[in-house]
Every structure is written in C-alpha cells, then in structure tokens.
Amino acid sequence: MNFRHLSGSSATPKTLKFGFDQKSFIKIINKTAVSQSLTNATEQTLMRGHSAAITCTATNKNLMLTGETGYDSDVLLWDTETNQILQRFSEHDGGIIAVDFSDDDLFWCSYGADGWLHIVEIASGDIVCRQAPTASNELLKLSILKFGGRISDPRGFKLALYQLIGISESGLLVKIVFNPKTALIETTVINSANIKKSVMDCEFLQTDRNLAVAVTLSGDVFMIDLTTQALICQMQLPGQISVLNCVSVLKPNQALLQQRQAQQKKNIYQTYGRMEQLDEFVAIGGQNVVCILRGQQNNWQVVKRLNLAENVIGIDSDEAGRIVFECSSGKIQLLVPPDYIQAELCSHHTKRITSMQFIGDKLVCAASEDNTLRILDLCDYNPGLVINTGFTAKTPTYPTAVCLNEVQLVTGFSNGDLKIYDVENGDLLTQIQAADRGVIASISCMRNLILLGSQTGDVRVWDLRGQKIVDQQRPHTQPVCQVQLMKDLKENPLVISSSEDRYLCATVAGVRILDFQLGGPLRAFVQINGLFFCIGGRAVDIVDLKEHKLVDHFEFQQRLMSLCARSDSELVVGCDDGSVLRIGVNANKLSLIEAKVKVHGGSVDKVASFGGVVVSADSVGELVVWD
After folding, report:
1. Which PANTHER family match (predicted)?
2. What is the mean pLDDT of the chain?
3. Which positions ≥6 away from 283 have C-beta within 8 Å?
4. Which of 45, 84, 291, 360 sits at 20 to 30 Å (Cα–Cα) from 65?
5. Across the strands, what pairs with 582?
6. C-alpha dihedral, 533 to 402 to 351 to 308, nearest 10°
7. Nearest-CA neighbor of 111 among 95, 126, 135?
8. How far, in Å, CA of 82 to CA of 525, rounded?
9. pLDDT at residue number 271
C-alpha cells in the first residue's frame, strides 16, 4: 500500500500558516503538522515528531516552531524545506502556550503553562534567557505571545533591546522588553484606560515594529504605540460584530519595506513622526466575519468584508498579499487580491471518525464526533457532501454508525436515535427516536430491514415501512461491536453479531443457532467464501461457524482494533499503536505481507476498502487514504 493523503483537522486556534515557498499552507491534525499544496490536495508533506497534540505554531522563512500539550511537552524547530527536526527543546512542563521567532532571525521564544518564558538562540540552540513574566511581583499568566524585533528610538535607530507583546489570561495587553546583554526581561502591563477590554489577539505592524494592532472580544480594533503605551486609534467594524478572534498583518514586498524603514530615520534635531509613513493592510477573523482593513496614517477603511456562517479561528497572510483562514468547522479558505474572491482549499472533520463505509468507487462516507456526515471524494480529497446531523457541539450526542441502504444513509447516534438521509442531497428523510436503548455501535441494512447493534449487548431489527421492531434479542453480555444482516434458507432475517464478550453469534427469530468463542474481544469480522475472518485481542482468526471450528490463528504483538477485506486474498488490519497491517490469505492460511508501522497518531479504530483503495481512521482524528 502507498500513502496518498492525510485528511482531518484539529481546528486548533491560531495555528494555520502559509508555507515558506508561498505554494503551500501548513495545518495541524493533532500531533502532525501537514504541509499541503494550495493548488493540489494530493501534494502533502507530513511532519511528525510530537507525542501529544500540537497547540501552537510559528514560521519564519523555511523554519517552523511547533509546541505541544502534555506534562512532558516539547518545542520542535523544523526545517520545512527538508522536513527535518533541527532542535528539540524539552524545558517546559504542562504544555506549550506560545512560540515565535524574532524579526532578525537570531532568537526564538517559547512560553509554557508552567509560567516560564525561554528565549533561545537559533544558531546554537542555547538558552539565553529563562524568566517568568511578572507584574506587581505576581506571576503573569499569558495566553498569547508574539516576538518582535529590536526597539527603535524616537529617531528611528534600533537599540540593543528586543520587544515582545503578549496577552494575559484576563485579556490585558502585556509589553515585554528583552535585554540580550543582561539576559533579563522587563514586563509592563499596558494600562491605558481605553484599552481595558478583553484582547483576543495582537500583532506587530510591518511599517513600524513599535506599533501593534489588537482585536477584542467586543469587536473593537486598536492600534497601540508600545513605546509610549498610548492608544493611537480605535475603530469598530461596521455591522453588528461581536467577537474578533485573530489578526494578521499583511507582509509588504521586502524592497518596499526596506525603503520605508530607511525613510523613517530622522535627523537628530528632527521630531520623529511615528504615523506619517503608516500604510498597512490588516486581515481580521472573528465570529461569522473576515475583514480586510487598510490604514493610512490615522485613517482606516474596510477594503473587503466577508460574512460567513462560521467562526474564524486562525488567519495568516503572505508576501503576495494572499490570505488564508481556518474556521472552527475545519474549513480552510484562500483569498487572493485584488478582489479577494473565496476559494476553498479543504474542508475536513475536526474530531474522531466513529464509522465509515465506501458508497461507491472513490467515494467514502465518514461519520464524526463533530456531528457531521461527510462524503469524501478520493479523487480530489474534498467533501462532495457535508450533512450536519442537527446536534450541537454542546450536546454529548453524535453519530456513531453509518450504513448505505441503496440511496439512503442510515445513521445511528450515541443517544440511540436513528436518522435516514438522502445520499444525493443530504435531506433528512425520516428518523426514529430511541430506536435503541443505548449507543448504536453498528448498523446493517437490507432494503426495508435495518439491524442495530447496541453497546448494551442487544440487537434489534427494524422494519422501516411500519417503523416497528420485528426482531429483538440480547445474544451478548458485553457491547456489540459489529452486526451483519443476512437471509437464511427460508428467507428469514439471519443476524450475525460480534461482541466484546468474545462471541461470534448467528441468530434467527431470537434463537441462537450458532456461536463461537475467541480468545479476546471480537471487535470486527468479514465473511469470505463462507468463512469468517475475525480479530479478537491480538490475533486474527479464521472461523468456520457452521462446523464450529477454528481454521487458522495468527497472533501479533499489537492489539488489533479494526478489520476489512481488500480482496478475497488480502485483509487490512488497524492496530492500537497506529500501525496498519496487510495480511495475506492463501489456502485458508494467514501470513503477514506488509506492516505500515505507526503511520497514525493514534489507535486505528476504523478501516474500509473498495476497489483496492484503503481508508484508515484513528482515535485522534486522522484519516489516511492508501492505494
């Protein structure tokens, strides 16, 4: 099997970045940083090195910083051109909150949940400063931290001091001055009366790095002079704007930027006018809105405003003036000047895949804990259809099982409800509330009959035409993992079920006619040529259910979590350590063909195959396509 595509999104705020080559963007899927082409979704580069979910990112030319959550949390310095880890920094405990680079490419910084700020020299990897920001002799907890450049004096000449800006957990702006000579920092809370609002994000301006722009929870946009701590200007976006989450300052052409900086330098006898050269473009994302502002001196105007039905959680820009932004739904879009027309780059699930099934050639339907059903087109890896199940993220209810029934998507939920959607347009056709007493773990369909397997150990057969139960039984004492609906010789419904109680059962009209016990929890099975291929614990077993005998037994070191048949002579198995195994079947004997070791960031709970294409999904939200 060859890797083709990694799908998914963690929807982590403020982590979306442009690639250094301006031909790609970088998104986060749990523990993995993915560099994907702006024009071709099949062109991806995976950067794996973290043991926990990535919480923050920063880029500078071909370098990238990533920080992770967890007690033993690391900061990784990447070369995105070669996809190699240059430095691994393990000085923080409790998780990384923010990372960033200095303007002159000499230093990078990291701030952790332990309250410590580290400033590290890029060339050597040496720590040049380790200090906890404090204000009024009290530890200052930050939620955002941005590394600027050297501070300019009133004449425009740079001093041997570096400036950082942060946001406290209470939403206050914080100015931090770093002195490389003394290896100390000085922290000041900006207490201007007009800025005492809950700040959500901030960024240094490009024209003058002593100026910063900040966006707030109340929808205000501020520009602050960090030298004097004065509020230069304030505006509120037109319309009823509430929350503004993120901001990015568009990067001008480097030659133009150097020209502007040279013009800023004044004669020693002249007064420095900080605003006279100001000409900035700022992109802002918030609740249901993306705005592009242009500021010239004290005048700000809205260049473009996009009204969305989603919450924008991350935004970035490149030197070409393009803007990329990410929504909490997992959708990433591109805006290209001068008209800033929207172009969707990708739209993926943001939480774990609970069930998936191929519904045709190169089409797979996946149900996710983010309360969506997505039909993924494996030609361009974009969803052909997204169905919102009607439950919100605040409710614990989400889809747990999906099955194609001719032109219908039959979906079971964690609260026992059953909903049926039209596969072509996503319309809700019918629903049955409390179709099962517990979580619906598996579904199998045969025209008007729908078989449900429950975590209570029950199996039920529903007749859709009359919306009534025609068969109900409890063949298992533990949660049912998989069910399959068939017909016996008399055309009666034949129920095949597997469970964590280690039994594979066949029942007709409530009577248990056949069963077989394996050595571990029977999580999945497939039927090939009258034999059942099952995974139980750490083994794959071939079972002849009619003869009640074990045909073959093949053990592994990993715990086996999922199973599908790629062909009559090949199985694909997902493991708890993130590995995907290919197992050959020859004359009813099992053998290992290939092992993709730890290719996932979590336990591979679901696998599916059709026409030689394999899709695997894990417990942390990664969905990988193989062929």
Report:
1. CILIA- AND FLAGELLA-ASSOCIATED PROTEIN 52 (PTHR13720:SF14), WD-40 REPEAT PROTEIN (PTHR13720)
2. 91
3. 247, 248, 249, 250, 290, 291, 292, 293, 315, 317, 323, 325, 335
4. 291
5. 572, 594
6. 150
7. 95
8. 42
9. 41
- For 589-601, what is each residue's pLDDT tens digit? 999 999 999 999 8
DSSP category for residue 195: G
From its phi and psi, is residue 612 left (phi > 0), alpha (psi between -120 and 50) or beta? Answer: left
The answer to the question of residue 600 being in a domain is: yes
Query: Distances from the Cα of 52 to the Cαs of 6, 49, 118, 142, 623, in angstroms?
Result: 18, 9, 20, 21, 17
- Phi then psi dihedrals of residue 119, to 5 deg: -120, 125
Residue of 130, 175, 145 whose CA lies nearest to 65 = 145
pLDDT of residue 265: 55
Say how many CA atoms lie within 13 Å of 524 toward its Cβ.
21
pLDDT in the model for residue 256? 54
How is 499-515 classified by DSSP, letter by letter?
A: ETTSEEEEEETTEEEEE
Amino acid present at 435: A
pLDDT for the residue 270 = 43
At residue 103, what are phi and psi to the nearest 5 degrees? -65, -35
CATH number of the domain where residue 591 is located: 2.130.10.10
Between the alpha carbon of residue 105 and those of residues 67, 100, 120, 206, 250, the distances in Å are 19, 11, 11, 16, 19
Residue 124 falls inside a structural domain = no
- Tell me the two tokens of residue 624: 């990988």
pTM: 0.90
Domain that holds residue 527: 518-627
Strand order in the sheet with 63-68: 54-60, 63-68, 72-79, 84-93
Instruction: Tell me if the bond preceding 338 is cis, omega within 30° of 0.
Output: yes
pLDDT above 90: percentage of residues in the chain: 77
DSSP label of 141 = P
Across the beta sheet with 173-179, the strand order is 142-152, 158-168, 173-179, 184-189
Mean pLDDT confidence for 174-196: 87
The residue type found at 267 is N
- What is the length of the chain? 627
Q: SS3 for 27-39, per residue? A: EEECCEEEEEECC
Angle at 127 between CA 126 and CA 130, to 5 degrees: 175
The DSSP element (H or E) to which 264 belongs, if any, is: helix 254-264
| 8 Cβ contact partners less than 8 Å away, ≥ 6 residues apart | 29, 30, 330, 348, 349, 350, 621, 622, 623
Reading the block at residue 511, the tokens are 């009577």
Domains in the chain, number: 1
Chain segment 288-340, per-residue pLDDT in tens: 999 999 887 777 889 999 999 999 999 999 988 999 999 999 999 999 999 99
Q: How much is the pLDDT for 277? A: 64
Instruction: Tell me, yes or no, whether 155 lies in a domain.
Output: no
Surface-to-core class of residue 530, CB atoms within 10 Å of its CB (0-12 exposed, 13-18 middle, 19+ buried): exposed
Model confidence at 268: pLDDT above 70: no
Residues 6+ apart with CB under 8 A from 490: none
Q: Look at residue 334 and tell me if it is in a domain.
A: no
- Report the candidate in 471, 484, 479 with the shortest Cα–Cα distance to residue 455: 479
Residue 23 has which token pair? 């031909």
